[in-house]
Design goal:
The chain is an alpha/beta fold. Helices cover about 25% and strands about 35% of the residues. The N and C termini lie far apart (about 70 Å).
Length: about 160
């Protein structure tokens, strides 16, 4: 015969058991944290590494970037200035995207590749371009793009 206490214990225990099973399944399915870290390390090891530097001149030191489709890209965005700057590729078909915001605002819709270092700082962003083409990048700080702080990424 079930008592109120037994029913209550069963009602609490069942969801906990289901939740534990889901967590264990996800760990097994994804391979856990070690597999995720290993995948990240493999992506970075094979990546096309480049640095884009900005300073007081409202220009990028590399206004033209050429990368290969299907190969990871790791971009270090270095701000040598005491002025805010960022590096934004607003629309590029990509996967494995990692963006960084260390100063100022973020870009809301989540589709842009963005690296925003602090003043006199640097950040690293990562993405794997999947579609050949030429894509614009720019600094989104008010007036900077209009002053010519732009460039292109060509995906071969």
């Amino acid at each position: 015969m079930m008592t109120k206490r037994t029913k209550l214990l069963g009602a609490v225990a069942a969801p906990v058991i289901v939740l534990a099973a889901v967590v264990i399944s996800l760990k097994l399915f994804t391979g856990g944290d070690d597999v995720v870290q290993a995948r990240h390390n493999a992506i970075v090891a094979d990546a096309q590494q480049l640095t884009v530097t900005v300073g007081d001149s409202l220009t990028f030191d590399r206004p033209t970037i050429i990368v290969e489709a299907g190969r990871p890209v790791v971009v270090t965005v270095r701000n040598l200035s005491a002025t805010d700057h960022d590096f934004v590729i607003p629309s590029i078909p990509a996967q494995d995207v990692v963006v960084r915001f260390e100063g100022g605002h973020s870009h809301g819709d989540g589709t842009a590749i963005v690296g925003r270092p602090k003043k006199k700082g640097e950040v690293t962003v990562q993405f794997t371009p999947i579609e050949p083409g030429t894509y614009e990048f720019y600094c989104s700080i008010t007036g900077h793009k209009e002053a010519g702080m732009t460039g292109t990424v060509t995906v071969l």
